[in-house]
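Service request form, structural biology core

Requester: graduate student, group of Dr. S.
Request type: structure prediction, single chain
Budget code: on file
Notes: please return the result as structure tokens.

Sequence provided:
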Amino acid sequence: MRLATAFFSVLATAGLSGQALAACPQELAVYSEVDGDTSIDFRPETEAAIVANSFRLITREGLMLDGMVMWSDEPARAYGSLMLNCPEGDQTGEEIAACTHWQGVVYALDKEGTIGLIPLSGEAAAERLLFPDLARALDSGPLNDGKTTLPRWDVYALSGCQE
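Core staff response, request fulfilled:
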């Protein structure tokens, strides 16, 4: 009897946590690399009007790359960038290029694998995100020092929601 009660408690808790994640807004979503050791935490954007989403890629060792998503016009695409140690204030194109470690379109994936665009802040978080060529770009760049855990995959699954 106790085993049955414990089993149904686990099922109920799993269902509730799935519902809680489904209600999570994109700007508070936390993602874990599929079969990997890195995570991505989104955060509300308060400063730049052109930035749709801000996030951080965090390695197992605690290295944090700052990310942002901006939308392009026709065709509408969510264009993402990951940067580390960019200078504050006005920056030249060369300074931005020197501190940018990945750039590309950020896609949302649903349970069936259908690809769409990342939700805007305030919308329900995507179940999974695809950062095309992220693992290769970081592996072949200056962050690959042989000590830092870098992404092995380009897909991240929703794993939590910040409060």
